[in-house]
Specification:
- The protein is 48% helix and 14% strand.
- The protein has 196 residues and is of the alpha/beta class.
- It has one domain (6-195).
- A four-stranded parallel sheet has the order 2-1-3-6, with helices on both faces.
- The relative contact order is 0.18.
Length: 196
């Protein structure tokens, strides 16, 4: 049986764009997912998506992963910390298993400014946990202006890691890279290559 010897953890929304917050999933994100798969497999690197803390939290609390934009502060108020701890332990366990099996773990890819998966920077927002609950049931009917309002409502970029990555950095020493959706796929790949 043939297996690639290298692995990289990756934010699940890079491979499954539909799980991102409402207003953040674009048609071209699916093309990027395909190109990321091609890039990593062409370079004989296994892709290991980790669970999305925001998605799991919303599925548990509101029975839907469709959500408006929230900040780190929003998700902390909504109770994401325990889920982030569970996912951290799951990633650490998987990392240890892969290392013991002889795989080389190249690093972990998060998302720039993500409330959970941001590396180095994240954002706080004026959105509340109640706002997320309110709009979850009718997410298909939210007007574009309202989606844009929540994406930009009292946004403050802060120089902190996202909730999940704060916990991960305390427990694991591997390269971390924040995929920047404001940059091209090619720019992100070049920067990933410099880190791994």
């Amino acid at each position: 049986m043939y297996r690639f010897k290298k692995c990289i953890f990756i934010a699940p929304c890079l491979l499954f764009p539909h799980i991102a917050a409402v207003g953040y999933c674009k048609r071209e994100d699916y093309d990027i997912a395909v190109e990321l798969l091609k890039y990593f497999y062409k370079n004989e690197i296994n892709i290991v998506p980790y669970p999305c803390p925001e998605k799991i939290l919303c599925e548990k609390k509101i029975k839907s992963f469709a959500r408006i934009s929230g900040g780190k502060n929003t998700y902390l108020d909504f109770g994401i910390k325990e889920i982030a701890k569970e996912i951290t332990n799951q990633i650490i366990d998987e990392y240890m298993v892969m290392k013991n099996m002889g795989f080389e773990v190249l690093g972990i890819i998060g998302i720039k400014n993500s409330p959970a998966c941001g590396i180095g920077t994240t954002k706080n927002r004026g959105t509340s946990a109640e706002d997320i609950k309110k709009f979850a049931k009718n997410w298909r009917e939210i007007p574009k202006e309202k989606i844009e309002f929540f994406k930009n409502y009292k946004v403050e970029e802060i120089k902190e890691d996202g909730i999940l990555f704060e916990l991960l950095k305390e427990k694991i020493s591997i390269p971390f890279y924040a995929y920047d959706k404001g940059k091209s796929l090619e720019e992100n790949i070049r920067e990933i290559e410099m880190r791994i």
